Amino acid sequence: MHLEEIIFKNMDLPLAVRRAVNRFRWWSRLRRRGTVSLEEHLSKSPESELSWNLASRAKSPEDALLLQEEREKVKRMLLELPLHQRIAVIMRI
Q: The pTM is what?
């Protein structure tokens, strides 16, 4: 073994020990704190900001597809109308 390898290994050992001790402290704090499930938290305060963030206001993919199909059907039906009726319907909308 060269002198550089010995010095490097001796410097590396305290670093590894410190990291292991820090990791142990982190796990100990986490265990002491305990865990709370998301469902339990939301059931205690359903009006919390978190519950508002989780609820999606967007349409589901199925609803979006149904709406698109319905719009296309209405456009096709409008194009089948005579011009004067189509103008009347479009002006009404």
A: 0.38
